[in-house]
Specification:
Radius of gyration: 22 Å
Number of strands: 6
CATH architecture of the largest domain: Orthogonal Bundle
CATH superfamily of the largest domain: Cytochrome c-like domain
Helix content: 25-40%
Largest sheet: 2 strands, antiparallel
Length: 405
């Protein structure tokens, strides 16, 4: 019996699992591998109830493994007409996240998904196969049956054994393991080939506007972005991931474009539910979502967990002006009072971060960033896009594909 999905919480664990997954060693270089199978599974729309949705539908390799669509929440289900609840995050650099837990100060950190509920790419890959608003299979067994009849089924048997499909639970585990191996080993998931990476390597200079944006990004009295999105190399020389893996309650405005919000009692509370249930009683964590990497952020079409902002400039402006000019982002009630933090129940709005720069302002005060400074930060954020070509000073995440794994 293979290890259970929920036991794979750290790279050491899945390395230890390899012995029970592979029927033998010594495969030829050209032979199929778990990673090559994972690549095929990731791109296969035939594994969905609709026959038209794959992992790549929401995490397109050519779009930094994020949504290729300008739509808000990708629809799924058997007829591709069941709306989702959150925007699809990029999967790039995601496998470098540590498992979810609490640090010595009791701060939640790590995990995958916007609420940190998955602890490895293997765990993260499991849910979309059966989620009603995603690939919508009735059960893992249905997924296994589809793989058994896929074009790569013989490769699957070659890697995992001739009788692999006789054990449904074991076969499903191996499907997820294959996806994890693809995401952990393919360089396209962590190319570190942005303009900023080349700047850190000393191979080029940033423009004056980009350098100004970097300075504002780092300054604790201005953007203070680096407090949660570190921009410097690690102590070991590693390149920055632009996330500290923590969670923050930012009070993003409610987005009526998400159909679920038509119900006034519906709230997406991040760490404390409704998708994540183990922290439902931690009311102090309600409204907190994982701090995402900012790598490739300039390629996105929707920002924050609910996609309420549709441009990068608008998202940065929200950080700067949320507290000085809340009327720009939140609705007014019948009495004309601005309903700040309206995507949280009134009793939980005190959880929103209002202490750290730039959230320490009040109406009537000067925002920490003016429009020219917002534009400079946005210019800097564009340097974080993968696939940079110094000859044209342009970047395209699709250029990061095709590297040797």
């Amino acid at each position: 019996m293979p290890p259970s999905i929920h036991s794979i919480r750290h790279p050491i664990a899945w390395l230890a699992a390899i012995a029970c997954l592979l029927p033998g060693m010594g495969l030829a270089v050209s032979a199929p591998t778990p990673a090559s199978l994972g690549r095929a599974i990731f791109a296969d729309p035939g594994l969905s109830a609709s026959g038209a949705m794959s992992c790549a539908s929401c995490h397109s390799p050519a779009h930094a493994h994020a949504s290729p669509s300008e739509g808000l929440v990708p629809p799924g289900g058997p007829g591709l007409d069941v709306p989702g609840f959150r925007t699809a995050p990029s999967l790039r650099y995601l496998d470098m996240t540590m498992p979810f837990g609490f640090d010595k100060e009791g701060t939640p950190v790590g995990g995958m998904n916007r609420d940190g509920r998955a602890n490895s790419p293997l765990e993260q890959a499991a849910r979309p196969f059966t989620a009603p608003h995603e690939m919508a299979n009735a059960s893992p067994a249905e997924v296994v049956a589809k793989v058994e009849h896929a074009a790569y089924a013989d490769d699957f048997r070659a890697v995992y054994g001739a009788n692999v499909f006789a054990d449904t639970e074991g076969a499903f585990f191996r499907i997820l393991f294959s996806i994890e191996q693809y995401e952990r080993t393919a360089r396209e998931f962590r190319p570190f080939d942005s303009k900023y990476d080349e700047f850190l390597r000393g191979r080029l200079r940033l423009s004056p506007l980009e350098l100004r944006g970097l300075a504002l990004f780092n300054r604790p009295d201005k953007g203070n972005c680096a407090a949660c999105h570190p921009s410097a190399r690690g102590a070991d020389g590693s390149f920055p991931l632009f996330t500290d893996f923590t969670f923050d309650a930012l009070g993003a405005p409610r987005n009526p474009a998400i159909p679920a919000t038509a119900d006034p009692d519906y709230y997406d509370l991040g760490l404390c539910g409704p998708d994540r249930i183990d922290l439902a009683n931690r009311r102090d964590l309600c409204g907190a979502f994982k701090v995402p990497t900012l790598r490739n952020v300039a390629t996105r079409h929707a920002f924050f967990h609910n996609g309420v902002f549709r441009s990068l400039s608008e998202a940065v402006r929200f950080y700067a002006r949320r507290d000085t000019n809340p009327e720009e982002f939140y609705p007014r009630d019948a009495n004309g009072v601005v309903q700040k933090f309206d995507d949280l129940p009134p009793a939980l709005r005190g959880n929103v971060n209002t202490l750290e720069v730039p959230y320490d302002r009040k109406p009537g005060q000067t925002p920490r960033l003016d429009e020219s400074e917002i534009a400079a930060i946005v210019a800097f954020l564009h340097t974080l896009t993968d696939g940079y070509d110094p000859r044209t000073d342009t970047a395209d995440p699709a250029r990061s594909l095709g590297h040797d794994d």
